[in-house]
Amino acid sequence: MPSNVDRAIKIGLYALLYAGAVALLVIFAPGEPQVFIYQEF
Amino acid sequence: MSSRNQSHPSRSPVTWGLALVLLFSIDAAITRTDVLWGPTAFENSGGLRLVFPQTYQVARKIYAPVRDADVRIALLGNSRVVLALREHRLERALARVAPEVDAVVSNLGIFGSFMGETEMLARHLEPLDPSVVVLAVGAPDLARRPTHAAGEGPMDLLRIGWRDGPIPAADFYERVDRWLRSAWPLYRFREFAREAILDRLLGRPDPGPPPQDFATRADLFAHLYSDRVEAVQAAYRVWERDGGLDAYASYLEIAGPGHLARRKQRARSREPLTQETPAVVVFDALLARLARAGRPTLVLLMPENPILVDDATGVFHRPGLADAGARLAQQLAAARGIPVVDARGWLTTDRFLDFDHPIFELEDLEQRLAQEILDALER
Question: Domain range for residue B5?
Answer without folding.
Answer: 1-31
